[in-house]
Amino acid sequence: MNSYKNIFALAFWAAFLPIALASCSKLDLKPTNDVVAEDVYATPLGYKQALAKVYGGFALTGNATTGSQDIPESIIRDEGNSDFLRLYWNLQELTTDEAAWSWPSDPGVQGLHEMRWSSINAIANGLYYRSFFQITLANDFIRQASDANISKRGISGADADELKNFRAEARFLRAYQYWVLMDLYANPPLVTEADEVGSGKLPQQIQRKDLFNYIESELKDLENLLPAPKENEYGRADRAAAWALLARMYLNAEVYTGTARYTDAITYSKKIIDAGYTLHPKYRELTIADNHLNTDENIFMIAYDGTYTQNFGGTSYLMHGPANVPADISGSNGDWGGLRFTENFVNLFADKTGNTDRRAQFYTGTTARPQTLEMTEIYLSTAGYSSTKYRNYTRTGELAPHIDPKKDFADIDFPLFRFAEIYLIYAEAVLRGGTGGDAGTALTYMNALRTRAYDGSTAGNLNSSQLTLDFILDERGRELYYEAHRRTDLIRFNRFTTSGYLWAWKGGVRNGAAVSDKYNIFPLPPTDLSSNPNLKQNKDY
Fold this sequence. Notes:
Blueprint: H1 6-14, H2 37-40, H3 44-56, H4 63-66, H5 73-77, H6 84-93, E1 100-101, H7 122-144, H8 147-152, H9 157-185, H10 208-222, H11 239-251, H12 253-257, H13 262-273, E2 298-302, H14 314-320, H15 327-330, E3 339-340, H16 343-346, E4 362-363, E5 386-387, E6 414-418, H17 419-431, H18 439-453, H19 469-480, H20 486-492, H21 526-531
Antiparallel strand pairs: 1-3, 2-6, 4-5
């Protein structure tokens, strides 16, 4: 087995070893039908298996789903819908010009693209609880990996040092989930390792600006605790992952806090640029079955595997989901007739064939059954081009190395952070007035992206007058589509709810319409509000 799969093989087995989030104390009885913390965390190997479960929460369902009693029943019934990435991706993409889903009967789908969701939307509630489930796993690991607990269990020397590194990784994973909650829900409750499970104390709500400060503090502390860039096992967090999340946060800081932090976005972008990352030469190799080889560009990935991460979320969803794409193109056993682009997004590409800009990866159908450019109907599988970006083939054209016999599950890793985004952050922050960078360097970085997109040709390169903020928004769309960025980008540019940019079926209208600004954030689930009087619903929900 390749080393990069090790942590996810451990996560697979860890799913069958429930972690006790609080050990039994009444009468000092030890359960005989379960595994408690004293067993799980007795050895360094046990700690690694527990850490694998914290990572595995990004890619696995199963035990991770059934452990979250508040995830909506409609989501639990279709376990693939409870995968973190599928939930997160749907909120980031189905709400924008990049995607619509053909099946309005699927829980939570109807109303997302139309921007008419309510506080009982199953996908919005599902992601909220999924993120808190993963935070709960991280909190327990951080608590169990305290210096006191490591010492109490007789672990010392190099083993103890390794566990402290594990603790830093768990803190990063928690910070990432809190960033998700801050970005989408603004004002969630805050729970840390200091809040013991079962204490009876209800968590307090934290305001978005304060949560930003908390995440920033955590990430800056982790700068000196996480492994140096590229020195950790593939699929695990290192210092560059923390820098990338900080750069992304600083780019959006004005949305989150009301105060611009573009200079800081440049500072942290440069840290990653100076760490030796480069653009992978071939854009179309970024989202295929052996993209784990792209260590030149990959910063932090969710590693999916046809053997160890079998569910219908994640990149299996992005492989099967695009409507009517033939199985021999996707490398699967067929499509689900679901995902299509609006014409507004497709029109960001001057050449839609992909013969010039290789990032244009559209399926336009056959003569007998074409996909229309225009999304004339929101829930019709042939209305709108489909995507061929996620393909279960290697760069040599072979089927995925860990493919399952039925071709149900993808081997494609998903980029939570890759280096191209860093160039885009740097350029945008410079244009928005951040210091520490310069327009000439920004242009160089953008042209590097364009040269890679044009397969080594400079035919698509820009001059300085063409590098504008509007161009960067469009370029982010072309470069990062279907990677769960679009909603956040449109909000930062004030194009998400406003009339500044309209797309098919925005607001439930064929040609698009502005909607209430309340849709810039999602509501907190009513079940959380009813069970915790410390929480107040987001405005206008």
